[in-house]
Amino acid sequence: QVQLVESGGGLVQPGGSLRLTCAASGFTFSAYGMSWYRQPPGKERELVASVSNTGGTTYYVDSVKGRFTISRDNAKNTVYLQMSTLKPDDTAVYYCKARLPSPPYVAYWGQGTQVTVSS
Fold first, then answer.
1. Which pLDDT does position 40 carry in this prediction?
2. CA–CA separation, 84 and 87 (whole Å)
3. Residues 116, 77, 99, 52: is their CA dihedral positive or negative?
4. Which residues of the chain have pLDDT under 50?
5. Distance of CA 84 to CAs 1, 37, 56, 76, Å?
6. 56: Cβ–Cβ under 8 A, 6 or more apart, which residues?
7. Which long-range contacts does 98-102 make (Cβ < 8 Å, 24+ apart)?
8. Cα distance between residue 3 and residue 109, in whole Å
9. Per-residue pLDDT tens for 82-104?
């Protein structure tokens, strides 16, 4: 049974930090690229950051560059999103996604974790 379980969300003040964790099970984690998406209230879901299956390549959306860091530990089947200098615009439900980088491009999603940045 495939599972992606996010944790680490919560309420934080502007300028603060949080680390999100996504624990994976039920598939060959090291074969999958991993991504974090977010969906702000009333808006579309957007890609925030991604990391290749080996961890050697990363991508960040412009709005989080220099503030967020994605990393993975293939020995622990876990991917992280370290978020710093948080802004109110970072408020969203954050989702973890696993995707095979080759056909059939199978993808799995977690259930999401809420991040609220507010004073």
1. 96
2. 9
3. positive
4. none
5. 33, 16, 22, 23
6. none
7. 98/4, 98/24, 98/27, 98/29, 98/32, 98/33, 98/34, 98/35, 99/32, 99/33, 99/34, 99/35, 100/31, 100/32, 100/33, 101/32, 101/33, 101/52, 101/53
8. 8
9. 999 999 999 999 999 999 988 88
Q: What percent of the chain has pLDDT over 70?
A: 100
Paired sense of beta strands 113-117 and 10-12, if any: parallel
> CA–CA distance from 118 to each of 12, 27, 92 (Å)?
6, 37, 12
Instruction: Return d(Cα 119, Cα 69) in angstroms, integer.
Output: 23
CA distance 21 to 31: 18
Give per-residue burial for 47-67: e unless 16+ CB within 10 Å, then b: ebbbbebeeeeeebeeebeee
